[in-house]
Amino acid sequence: MNKGRWLALPALGWLTAFFLIPLFFVVAISFCQRGTYGEVLYQFTLENYRRFFEPLYLNILSDTVQMSVVTTILTFLLGYPLAYRIVRMNRSWQNVWLLMVMVPFWINFLIRSYAWVVILRSQGLLNTFLIASGLIDQPLNLLYNPAAVQLGMIYTHLPFMVLPVYVSLEQLDRRLLEAAYDLGGTPWQSFRQVTLPLTLPGIAAGSILVFVSSLGMFVVPDIMGGAKSALIGNLIQNQFLSARDWPFGSALSILLTVFSLVLIYLYYRVLESQKGKGGRH
Fold it and tell me: Could you tell me which residue ranges the ABC transmembrane type-1 domain spans (predicted)?
């Protein structure tokens, strides 16, 4: 065996031990039955997969996809201009802004989520400020609703969009933009026909990171949505921790994984077709 290949063995062993083998058990349990007291009965059944197509669970999946799509779009609309602005700064300011983007990663996720509870609750910082400034008389209902969950998910996933887009913009050949200007292109035309198509790989990477992470998110809906917001991640969590229905929870996990892979494949196909059209122009 080539010496270089040995270097990959630790990583392959790690993935096999902590990803492939657990995944195999999840797949196997998804075809089992739940016992009376929550134990797993190793008897083959497709009932867990059939149960997923009941209206209740399809509605939860629909809400999850809708929430994830909106999160992806809004993080793109917020993250792309921010990454574009950072790239145009001098190197020292770029480092400062990139540090600010990455600082949330250094703080525990639960602490960041509960910080939003402190800000948005009825007696929180925002309501207190609005009442003290005379803008409102009664506290606004800013927490435990879908809007609060959406806010938390955008805040959580924004760095996942900014960083890949920043890398694409940083690697962009500036001579192409100069050529576009020399040919009479306006700044908007240069952006639309040069910058945007050439940064599609960064946009795709960021979108996939945000979308897939949003699909499985359960902490933010739990903390900021309360009992009024149930996404597919919360449903899976409840099956394992509360309902003690591991077979159904495993089936949901497998279906969510397959659903994510199909969407990612379709997304790449659309991007490839768009790049093909851009190349013909």
Answer: 61-267
Q: For residues 219 and 111, what is the distance between their CA atoms, to the nearest angstrom?
A: 11
Tell which CATH classification among 3.40.50.80, 3.10.105.10, 3.10.20.310, 1.10.3720.10 matches the domain 55-279.
1.10.3720.10
Q: How far apart are CA 109 and CA 115, in angstroms?
A: 10
Q: What is the DSSP string of 51-98?
A: HHTSHHHHHHHHHHHHHHHHHHHHHHHHHHHHHHHHHTS-HHHHHHHH
DSSP character at residue 39 = P
Pair 251, 173: CB distance under 8 Å = no
Residue type (1 letter), 273: S
Strands 33-34 and 40-41: antiparallel
- Give the tens place of pLDDT for each residue, 157-190: 999 999 999 999 999 888 888 888 888 888 899 9
Percent of the chain with pLDDT over 90: 51
- At 140, which amino acid appears? L
Q: Is 140 a residue whose pLDDT tops 80?
A: yes
What DSSP designation does 135 have? S
d(CA 35, CA 42): 10
pLDDT (tens digit, 9 = 90+) per residue, 40-89?
999 999 999 999 999 999 999 999 999 999 999 999 999 999 999 999 99
Cβ(206)–Cβ(79) below 8 Å: yes
Contacts of 243 (CB under 8 A, 6+ apart): 38, 249
pLDDT band for 278, please (50, 70, 90 cuts).
low
* Cα–Cα distance, 46 to 37 (Å, whole number): 20
Where do the domains of the chain lie?
55-279
